[in-house]
Amino acid sequence: MKKGIIILFAATLGLAACNNYKKGEGDLQYKILKDEGKEKIKEGDFVKLNGIQTVEGSTNADSTLVNTYDNERPAFFPINKSMFKGDLVAALKMLGEGDSASFKLNLDSMAKYSGQPKPAGLKSNYATFTVKIEKVLHKVANEADSTFEKKKREFFETEYKGLIAKNKANESAKIKKYIDDNKLEVKSTASGLQYIIEKPGNAERATLTDTAVVDYTGQFTNKKGDGKINVFDTSNEKIAKEAGIYSPMAQYAARPLVLGQLAPGFIEGVQLIGVGGKVKIIIPSKLGYGENGGGPINPFTPLVFDIEIKSIKKGPVGGAVTLPPVQATPAQ
Question: Per-residue pLDDT tens for 201-210?
Answer without folding.
Answer: 999 999 999 9
